[in-house]
């Protein structure tokens, strides 16, 4: 196989895994009455409650008006609440309600189930190798974006011990 063919095959495989992973997670989220966007938002808030709307938009990689509409829906379902920041009343911070935390725990369990099925048969050494390689590709993408925008990228790699803990 030529390098050009290998490059294409790797990109095709990464794209396929991404599509199938999103599809698998989305189907399970929809079965619980959530959209993928809402499930991702609840998951982020489960990990760190109280980000600003701007920080949440950054974490979701969407624009602030998009996250505002998303939060309007979650708030309407009693899953989150927005509170003014104590230091800057113009900034709204987002918190899970008790009901939202319960649903977020379901989302975390759903994510654990998907991870277990997707990673079935891969040992810790293979997972570390995959994480290392994907981290390098993410760093390359960050550098590529930095050259285009002039903004210094953040390192994408996850510390190995945190990645192993997250995979449990």
Report what the structure shows.
It holds the Pfam family MarR. Residues 7-139 form the HTH marR-type domain. Keywords: DNA-binding, Transcription, Transcription regulation. The chain has 168 residues and is mainly α. It has two domains: 19-118, Arc Repressor Mutant, subunit A (Orthogonal Bundle); 122-168, no CATH class. 69% of the residues lie in helices and 6% in strands. The protein is built from seven helices and two strands; from the N terminus they run H-H-H-H-E-E-H-H-H. A two-stranded antiparallel ribbon has the order 1-2. Helix 3 crosses helix 4. The longest helix is centred in the first third of the chain and has 29 residues, at 3-31. The radius of gyration is 18 Å and the shape is globular.
Topology at a glance:
Layout lengths: L2 H29 L4 H12 L5 H8 L3 H13 L3 E5 L7 E5 L1 H21 L5 H26 L10 H7 L2
Antiparallel strand pairs: 1-2
Helix pairs in contact: 1-5, 2-5, 3-4
């Amino acid at each position: 196989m030529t390098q050009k063919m290998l490059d294409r095959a790797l990109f095709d495989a990464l794209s396929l895994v991404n599509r199938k992973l999103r599809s698998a997670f989305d189907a399970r989220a929809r079965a619980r009455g959530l959209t993928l966007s809402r499930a991702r938002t609840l998951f982020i808030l489960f990990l760190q409650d109280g980000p600003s709307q701007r920080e949440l938009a950054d974490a979701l990689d969407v624009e602030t008006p998009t996250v505002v509409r998303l939060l309007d829906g979650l708030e309407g379902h009693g899953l989150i609440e927005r509170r003014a920041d104590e230091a800057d009343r113009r900034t709204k911070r987002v918190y899970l309600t008790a009901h939202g935390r319960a649903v977020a725990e379901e989302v975390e369990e759903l994510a654990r189930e998907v991870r277990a099925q997707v990673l079935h048969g891969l040992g810790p050494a293979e997972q570390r190798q995959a994480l290392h390689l994907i981290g390098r590709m993410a760093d390359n993408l960050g550098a590529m974006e930095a050259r285009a925008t002039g903004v210094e990228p953040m390192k994408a790699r996850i510390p190995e011990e945190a990645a192993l803990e997250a995979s449990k």
